[in-house]
Amino acid sequence: MKNILSIVILICVNFTVKSQVTRYFEFRQTLGQPIDSTYTSFITAASDTTVINSVLNDLMLPIANRRFISGIITNGAGGFNHDGTNWHSWHFITNEWQLTAANIEFCDGISSLIGNHPSIIAGDSLYFCPWDSYPFQEVYNPSLSVEDLNSDIQITIYSNPSTNKVYFKWESSQHLLIDIYNITGQRIFTTKLSKQNNDIDISNLYNGLYFVHLTDGNKREKRKIIVKN
């Protein structure tokens, strides 16, 4: 009986490990400037559900209420850490970081502007806690640069997080085709908007993250919205 129980436990543990999915998040640093002006960014990875849920919960808050990141960084970009086309020489070790309510500058002995820190380049692991950092968005293909992920369509989506309705404002005179997908990749809504009819009723959607595929003529773009009814 004990042998059977041990086998069942091993199978369950193995299934749990294999079922973990790594997710990526872009963090921004304000560099002492207002949130909507100068910033730099970096990308982190997490497969621990506690860490992932912690970030997802913060993403539903106003930026001013989001927490800072603290954790262990090491040499190399890790295959995901960049700011636009600039690949960083360091990255946070997956799951070796967390969000904290407050960071104290130089708690790690290094500046928020870590740049090409000699110790990191040498392969040392350091504790990094930039006081001006905050989670900005989830990244679904970290091999692409931030510029690659930017919009081909000049569009504004508001408000986001959204309650009851989400509004779209774009520059061209074309109709805007909207497809909304849930986090499992299932298309749940399709519509075409005009300048006179530029909102979508989302009151029947469950709270959470959704992917919005936008088509304007021959231009395409993907955005994300958070529903918080």
Describe the structure.
With 229 residues, the protein is an alpha+beta fold. The chain has 4 helices and 15 strands. It has helices at residues 2-19, 49-59, 118-121, 146-149, and strands spanning 23-29, 40-46, 68-75, 82-83, 86-87, 90-100, 126-128, 133-139, 155-163, 165-170, 176-181, 187-193, 199-201, 208-216, 219-227. The strands form 5 sheets. A 4-stranded antiparallel β-sheet has the order 12-11-14-15, with no helix packed on it.
Sheet/helix structural class? alpha+beta
Strand content: 35-45%
**Measured distance between first and last alpha carbons:** 50 Å
Report the sheet with the most strands, covering strand number, pairing sense and barrel closure.
4 strands, antiparallel
- The run of helices and strands is HEEHEEEEHEEHEEEEEEE
The main sheet orders its strands as: 12-11-14-15
Count of DSSP-assigned helices? 4
Query: How large is the radius of gyration?
Result: 20 Å
Low-confidence stretches are 4-19, 145-150
Global morphology: elongated
Number of domains: 2
Short description:
This protein is of the alpha+beta class.
Give the helices and strands, then pairings.
Elements lengths: L1 H18 L3 E7 L10 E7 L2 H11 L8 E8 L6 E2 L2 E2 L2 E11 L17 H4 L4 E3 L4 E7 L6 H4 L5 E9 L1 E6 L5 E6 L5 E7 L5 E3 L6 E9 L2 E9 L2
Antiparallel strand pairs: 1-2, 1-8, 3-6, 3-7, 4-5, 9-10, 10-13, 11-12, 11-14, 14-15
